[in-house]
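task queued by scheduler; priority normal; single chain, no ligands, no partner chains; default sampling; output format set to structure tokens
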Amino acid sequence: MDMQAAAVRSDAILDAVLQEIRPEVRWTHGFTSVGACEVTRRRVVMTDISAERRGSFLGVVERFWRKSGYRMTAVNNNAEFPAIYARTRDGFRMSLRIGGKGQAFFQVDTPCVQESEVADSTSQATAPLYEGAEFIPRPNIHSDFWSAGAPGAAPAGS
């Protein structure tokens, strides 16, 4: 497997987990990084995940990863910044970390593979891409479900 094939596999892992989350969350591409023999793909969730919903969000992802045959390698139960980490049988490492303002970060690191060029992901983001921006902003998309109870969140139906 070369770096491009590994990047495509990483995109498939990310696409699958994001499609599993219901109600859906909106996401954008984080930057892709390339090392000596590995690739890292990232997705940034732009939907605000309230503190009250973070456990449910991580639970949906953890159950899906387990159902997919991935092995959970670590869990950070920090109330404000929880995270889960998993690994595929063929050495791909995934993480879901919750950062500031309830922003969720997905990442897949590939195992060491044959060096090659790596193209941008062809997966269609469901939130703006923020091309040319120095940083991706904090989550700015409200969900009646995932944002419920968040300070400053608009009540349902408003």
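post-processing summary
- The CA atoms of residues 130 and 136 lie 6 Å apart.
- The radius of gyration is 16 Å.
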